[in-house]
Design goal:
The chain starts with a strand and ends with a helix. The chain is of the alpha+beta class and 85 residues long. The protein is built from 3 helices and 4 strands; from the N terminus they run ββααββα.
């Protein structure tokens, strides 16, 4: 199953991405991978509308592990937004 959620990125995250020469969604995806081990693909590779940010993920874990995955993802996003707000 694929998921293509839209994410809101704070202005400081956009500036940090630019400073590293990365697209903002790539910056987010790399931080997610580095900090959680969750691998997703930046939405910019799929023709997202300018000014919006997404990522694509393939969801393959067994049902009993899905809740853990979603909690890790949610926790990371909350901390990411807090750090860059």
């Amino acid at each position: 199953m694929y998921s293509f959620p839209r994410i809101e990125l704070p202005p400081r995250a956009l500036a940090a991405a630019e400073a590293q020469g990365q697209a903002p969604d790539m910056f987010f995806c790399m931080k997610l991978l580095e900090e959680t081990g969750i691998c997703v693909v930046p939405g910019s590779g799929f023709g997202q509308r300018e000014g919006t940010f997404h990522f694509r993920m393939t969801i393959l874990p067994p049902a009993e592990k899905l809740q853990v995955l979603l909690e890790k993802l949610s926790g990371f996003y909350a901390e990411f937004v807090k750090e860059y707000s």
